[in-house]
Amino acid sequence: MMRLLRVECQGQRGFTLLELLVVLVLIGIVASLATLSLGNGAERLLRSESERLAGVLRLARDELLITGGADRALGLRRDAYSLLELVILDDASREWQPLLDPQLGPRQLEEGLLEISFQQNGNRRPLPQTGGWEPHVYLSNTGEMTPGLIILRVPRQNLERHIEIGLEGRVEVLDAQPR
């Protein structure tokens, strides 16, 4: 009887090849799903920031259409953007100032991770790095906008997203530069 128990115990050591293969396949599937869900952080940041900027433009356009308020503009810098309003300082001077609004107000991009450029009529317009705000895309209370192309780019990588703005107020996010 003792001999039978020893033989039976010796047969239960280790895993079969099939069990090992099933475990390895499951680990591989879980690892690949985790990798896909994480993705490239810079690409995800670029995608979310371009969608946010396009949403800001659409929201500002819709708000102007509904309220019929004063014209506004989008001010761009290489590292930030904001909706601007024209403020009358005195009888002779006016100045574009950023809106003090959580959604439409100044948005600072993470330094070194994203940068903005702007094209109008196929020509790149220089953007200030810091300092005051100047208008680049004018929004009218009729829904019209200054046509142009805002480019968000991840420096030192070949990652770009484009926001195409049409005269009639169309705002479209594109992966590739329009022709």
Automatic annotation (TrEMBL):
It comes from Pseudomonas jilinensis. It comes from the Bacteria. GO terms for biological process: protein secretion by the type II secretion system. The keyword Zinc-finger does not apply. It is found in: Membrane. The keyword Cytoplasm does not apply. It is a single-pass membrane protein. Signal peptide: none annotated. This is Type II secretion system protein GspH. The chain crosses the membrane at residues 20-42. NCBIfam families: IV_pilin_GFxxxE. Pfam families: N_methyl. The gene is gspH. Its main location: membrane. One of its GO terms (cellular component) is type II protein secretion system complex. Keywords: Membrane, Methylation, Transmembrane, Transmembrane helix.
